[in-house]
Amino acid sequence: MELSHLDQVDKEIIRLLHNNGRLSYAKIGEILNLSRVAIQKRVENLIDNEVIENFTIRLNAAKLGKVVSAFFEVEVEPRFTEEVGNQLSDDANVISIYQMTGNSSLHVHALLKDEAALEAFLYQNLYKRSGVVRVNTQVVIKRFKQGKRLGL
User: How many CB atoms neighbour CB 80 within 10 A?
Assistant: First the structure.
């Protein structure tokens, strides 16, 4: 099911849940003038068709002691790309990994406790890892927007 195949009610349900994933089916039904059961069936259909992948929360990393947000462009020998990506996926500090076009590279985002943790992550998880050719590190100094909106 693609966005173009969604009717206006489904798009509005998605918009409402996107803004507040905690809205109840009853509240959404009240807003859209539909029954709770109708909303529940539509949401279940959106989940079954993988339009909605999951419901989650966003945490404030700094309040949880993770004050360094860093992005790593990790150039990897092509034969090691899958292995390195999977290994880094197991690290609790890593919040996202994407394989990128161009040189065989992985784009890694990690949240770390402090500069010492950043240094340890670089040396233990990246520089010493088999297949890693080069690492370019960028530390976030200010966030203007965090990816939540899909622009529906």
Answer: 16
What pTM was estimated for this model as a whole? 0.75
User: Whole-angstrom Cα distance, residue 71 to residue 83?
Assistant: 19
Query: How far, in Å, CA of 2 to CA of 44, rounded?
Result: 16
What is the four-CA torsion angle of 79, 80, 83, 85, rounded to 10 degrees?
-120
What mean pLDDT is predicted for residues 58-79?
91
Which pLDDT score is estimated for 115? 95
CB within 8 A of 28, min separation 6: which ones? Answer: 13, 16, 17, 34, 39
Of the candidate CATH numbers 3.40.50.1100, 3.30.2290.10, 3.30.70.920, 3.40.50.150, the domain formed by 62-139 belongs to 3.30.70.920
Radius of gyration of the chain (CA): 20
Helix axes 36-48, 25-32, angle to 10 degrees: 110
What are the CA-CA distances from residue 116 to residues 43, 91, 124 (Å)? Answer: 44, 16, 12
Angle at 99 between CA 94 and CA 102, to 5 degrees: 135
